[in-house]
Amino acid sequence: MEQDEFFLKVSTALSGCQMVEFELKLYLTNAVALIKKRLGERIFFGMSGSDFDNSSLEGLIKHFKKFSDNRELISRLNSFKNERNFLSHKAIAICMHQHEGYQQWQAASLDDRLNKINIEALSLFNDIHNESAKFLGYLWFEDEI
């Protein structure tokens, strides 16, 4: 795999990871909005979607666990987090030699892993979206209480 192709694949995989993080933030923002809507003026609730703006993927998963009982999805997110951390912190480094630069054979060995990250990112994005569908109707269409 040529160097430009490798970097493009890494960038594509990282984009998928960002979309998972975005969908988790959207889920959490909507969940908090629904709670606020349902509570009304009965009790102060100081959380908002902006509370999650700077959260890491690990932090988002930690919060997500408090708003969803979908254990299978949470397990997949935790596994995905490990792959995302590898991608973010090690994938490029292991393909670069201190003196010889880009190592094509090392990059080629990661090709399958990068493809799997992309596939899982898309699947997780859709599954998180579907998880939020369980309550979005209440947020958007239910009258204030």
Helix coverage percent: over 70%
Strand content: under 5%
**Annotation field: number of helices:** 5
Biggest sheet statistics = 2 strands, antiparallel
Low-confidence stretches: none
Determine the oligomeric state from the structure.
single chain
Q: Tell me how many strands there are.
A: 2
Strand-pairing-aware structural class:
mainly alpha
CA-based gyration radius? 19 Å
H and E string: HHHEEHH
Beginning-to-end CA distance, first to last residue: 58 Å
Shape: elongated
Strand order of the largest sheet: 1-2
Task: Give a concise summary.
This protein is mostly helical and 145 residues long. It is 72% helix and 3% strand.
Summary tags:
single chain, 145 residues, mainly alpha, 3% strand, elongated
Could you please describe the fold and organization of this structure?
By secondary structure, the chain is mainly alpha-helical. 72% of the residues lie in helices and 3% in strands. It is built from 5 helices and 2 strands, in the order H-H-H-E-E-H-H. The chain has a two-stranded antiparallel sheet. Helix 1 packs parallel to helix 2 and helix 2 packs antiparallel against helix 3. The mean pLDDT is 93.
